[in-house]
Every structure is written in C-alpha cells, then in structure tokens.
Amino acid sequence: MSTNIYVQRICEYCKVEFTARTTKTQYCSHKCNSRHYKEKSKKANISKSNNETVEKITLEVQKIRMLDYLTVKEVSVLLRCSEKTVYRNIKNGNIKAINFGERNIRVKRSHIDELFKS
Question: Helix 109-117 to helix 72-79 angle, to the nearest 10 degrees?
Fold first, then answer.
C-alpha cells in the first residue's frame, strides 16, 4: 500500500531533519533506529546493574549492623574505606581491636560507634 504523505520530521537519534512517509516515523534511517535502541538498552543495563550494587551494599551493611564483633573487611565496608586503612588505624590505636592471630582480628561494634560519637 503506497502513501502520498510527506512529513518533515527530526530524527530522534541524530537530530537531522528528514522527510517521513508516515506520521509515526521517528528515525531518518534503520541505522539511527538501531543505534538508538542499542544506546537505550545499554543505559537500562547500566542503571539495573547500579541499582543491584546499591541494594547489595545496603543489605551487607544491614547484616553488619546486627553483629557484635566485626572482621577487618566488615569494618572497611561499614566505614567505606580500604582494608589497609583499617589495619593502619588499628596499628595507630585509633580503632581498638582484638588480635587472635595473624589475619584474625576482630573489632567490637561498640568501639566503631564510639568513634563517631565524639
């Protein structure tokens, strides 16, 4: 079925003016349509991944808040810093910790809370 309609449109992707043959045409070419679809899919996947990451972090922090004694890794997640920073603060005496042996250090949750009270 042929149509005699010619409508001036602006492409959704490249923003170039073109002549459309239907009133529903959004893109100047199949290439622009494909590129826009791929861009939208990529953005959707990135935002989905970012949301999953935020959910994992908040879930992990909630689990950590229920524990009385924390490992160095859990303290680093809670304080949002690296494990090296936690080890350095333990060595300097800023964070009180109990050493059960090499790489078997525990930090009392109340000591972490006291750091932020003062």
Answer: 30
What's the pLDDT at 2? 60
C-alpha distances in Å from residue 12, one per residue of 36, 46, 71: 8, 21, 52
Q: Is the pTM of this model over 0.85?
A: no
Taking a C-beta distance cutoff of 8 angstroms, is the pair 85, 78 a contact? Answer: no
CA distance 3 to 1: 7
Structural domains of the chain sorted by starting position, each given as residue range(s) with its CATH number in brackets: 1-66 (no CATH), 67-118 (1.10.10)
Average pLDDT, rounded, for the chain: 91
